[in-house]
Amino acid sequence: MRKLIAGLSVVFMVGLFASCNKFLDEMPDNRTQIDNLEKVKALLVTAYPAKCYATWLEPRCDGMADHGATLDGTQPSASFAFIYTAYRWDEYPSMENDDDAEAYWTACYGAIAAANHALEALDELGHPKGSEPYRAEALLCRAYAHFCLLTLFTDFFDEANRGTNPGIPYVTEPEDVINKQYDRETVAATLAKVKDDLAEGLKGVGTASDFVQPKFHFTLDAARMLALRIALFERDYPSVISYASQLIPQPTNFVNIVDQQQQPLLNADGSEVKIPHPNDFASLFCVSNLFDWRAANSAYSGSTEFQLAFCNANNANIILAGEPYSLLNRTSMSTAYTRYTHGGKEFNAILGANASGVNWYMPIFGFNGAPADAPGFLPKIYEDFKVTNINANTGQPYVRFALFRLEEALLARAEAYAMTGEYDKALADLTMFSQRRVQSENIVQYYYSRDKVVDYYTDILTLSDHYMNSNFNAGRFSAALSTYEGKLQRGLVLAVLDARRMEYIYEGMRWFDILRWNIPVTHTMLSGESSTLTPDDDRRVIQIPETASLSGLEKNSYDHIPQPWS
Question: Which of 31, 342, 353, 458 is most buried when burial is the number of CB atoms within 10 A of its CB?
Answer without folding.
Answer: 342
